[in-house]
Design brief:
Keywords: Signal. One of its GO terms (biological process) is lipid metabolic process. This is Altered inheritance of mitochondria protein 6. It comes from Streptomyces caeruleatus. By secondary structure, the chain is an alpha/beta fold. It has a domain of about 90 residues. It is about 30% helix and about 20% strand. The chain has nine helices and twelve strands. Helix 3 links the parallel strand 1 and strand 2. Helix 1 crosses helix 4.
Length: about 290
Amino acid sequence: MALTTRRRALTTLGAALAGTVALPAGQALAGERRHGPRPLWRAHAHNDYEHPRPLLDALDHRFGSLEADIYLVGGQLLVAHDPEDLAPTRTLESLYLDPLAARVRANHGSVYRGHRGPLQLLVDIKTEGASTYLELDRHLRRYKHLFTTYAHGRVFPGAVTAVISGDRAARTPMEAQSVRRAFYDGRLADLGSSAPASFVPLISDNWTLNFTWLGVGAFPDAERRKLRGIVRAAHSRGQKVRFWATPDVAGPARDALWAELLAADIDFLNTDDLAGLEAFLDARRTA
């Protein structure tokens, strides 16, 4: 696959910063308040790598979950949404793994100083799933004690929990492992299946394929019951729930839909608008 530089100004800036994110621990923490407000564990940064400062912008806004799309190219895991945007400097290590490791070392074992909850790193595989996952697994093994680990039937919490999404072929090699540093992002079809939360801790799906309501007018009662039933079923099995493709244009419709998701006790709100979701959650005093 030919590598090209990113064409958009925003991501060009991100590429320029790629060489600066793998910094010594003190610099990786630049701008973080020693005793800042609590993390927003329900906030999920969709397409995080398209922000001017991948990872760091989401952490500055106190997000509890973020998403990186990866491609396997010549043994390297490159971060981009589309193949034409691939650049050799934008690796998963430089944008995410190295700065996270530095931050956790500086914070004595946690991403957010004084808060022990794990940050969720959702890794969306864009190339063939099995081979890409096996290479990702080799990368994750280089970061001892950073990731939540499944080993011989038990889950050992870490500062970061990696969840694998994207190409479904990743599932087969993951299921075959007795020790792994990542977990699988299920779909609604996995809800109530034999797959345990120790393998599928997250159920994600497309909102528009399951609901008609987009925040305008009243939420249909049948759809509200369906949403709450999904969340209850997942929570009863120790799983969390996220929907993508929810409205993300600032305004009353988005706020109404986010409010219904919170009322249903959804675990993650999906957005590209970091400041908008931060303000929404802060106004409601919820994490």
